[in-house]
Amino acid sequence: MAGLDLFSIALIGVAAFAAGAVNSVAGGGTFFSFPALLAVGVPPVVANASNSVALWPGSLAGAWAFRRELKRFSKSLPMLSIVAFIGGIAGGLLLLATSNAAFSKLIPWLLLVATVLFAFSAQISALVRRWKPTPSGADERHIGPGGFIFQLVVSIYGGFFGAGMGILMIAALAIQGFKDVHEINALKNWLSAIIYSVAVATFVVANAVSWPHTLVMIVTATIGGYWGAAVARKVPAIWLRRFIIGVGGVLTIYYFGKTL
Questions:
Q1: Residue 166: how many CB atoms within 10 A of its CB?
Q2: Are the beta carbons of 97 and 160 closer than 8 angstroms?
Q3: In a domain, 1, yes or no
Q4: Which of 233, 69, 237, 240 is nearest to 141 (CA)?
Q5: How far apart are CA 34 and CA 19, in angstroms?
Q6: What is the dihedral of CA 92, 60, 181, 48, to 10 degrees?
Q7: Interatomic CA distance for residues 200 and 226, integer angstroms
Q8: What is the pLDDT of residues 35-75, one digit of tens each?
Q9: Whole-number Å distance between alpha carbons of 245 and 160
Q10: Which of 137, 191, 197, 223 has an alpha carbon 20 to 30 Å from 89's alpha carbon atom?
Q11: CA 167 to CA 228: how far, in whole Å?
């Protein structure tokens, strides 16, 4: 494995900062950090493990920055957290049973569906409400059985492969009728951190982490995660929404290109 010189520190440090910031806003930070690890000579499997460990604290930092919004889901959060944990474990086991070739072919289609769902989430939510209106006086932040099942599916995907997990989670929450982008980000960051926890425990126990690279990235990704969440609150919702759709589009095109 390549050594850690000043150029490598600078490259993976900046990439991890960008990844932490992007993950706290929309997801897709792996698009920055994973290639940076490969560029400095870290083997792919170790790079994937190290990247997951490095971005885990960034998700926690992003969730902490949105803690005010997260408190609004006090009734649903415990069950959502359990669902995310179970889904993360199931996704990890599914990954172990899937061939690399089959997995590579699935990624761009999953990202395409997630991006389209988010882009048209308002229209889909309107159709859902027309079919099943919300009772008068009901808590708009209440998550029903269907929402938990939807989140379980997203969590399984997150444990299966982290890239694009944020886009999928945002799409899932938006389709359930959540309108406040900051509240969606708060839930997404917290649940992503839980799913990452499963991967982190697995990779650490398996001794598949390059700690010199990972420690550099943990610091900068965590700073980036908190900074990104703080900046996101000041950005108009329409621009934040466009940015999220843009990230989803770039990821989709990138992974479709890799399958050619």
A1: 32
A2: no
A3: no
A4: 69
A5: 9
A6: -40
A7: 20
A8: 899 889 888 778 877 888 888 877 777 778 778 888 888 77
A9: 22
A10: 223
A11: 16
Is there a contact between 89 and 154 (Cβ–Cβ < 8 Å)? no
Question: Which tokens go with 161?
Answer: 């492969």
* Angle separating helix axes 237-259 and 181-205, nearest 10 degrees: 40
Distances 181 to 74, 83, 121, 202, 253 between C-alpha atoms, Å? 18, 22, 12, 32, 24
Dihedral angle, C-alpha 59, 62, 67, 71, nearest 10 ° = -50
- As for how many domains the chain has, the answer is 1
Q: Which tokens go with 236?
A: 């108009």
Report helix, strand and coil shares of the chain as percent, to nearest 5.
80, 0, 20
Q: Let me know if residue 54 belongs to a domain.
A: yes
Between the CA of residue 196 and those of 87, 101, 115, 148, 219, what are the distances in Å?
A: 11, 23, 21, 19, 16
Range of the domain at 107: 6-259
By CB atoms closer than 10 A (0-12, 13-18, 19+), residue 49 is: buried
For residues 2-38, b (16+ Cβ closer than 10 Å) or e, as one string?
eebeeebbebbbebbbbbbbbbbbbbbbbbbbbebbe
Q: pTM for the complete prediction?
A: 0.72
The string of pLDDT tens digits covering residues 182-197 is: 788 888 888 888 887 8
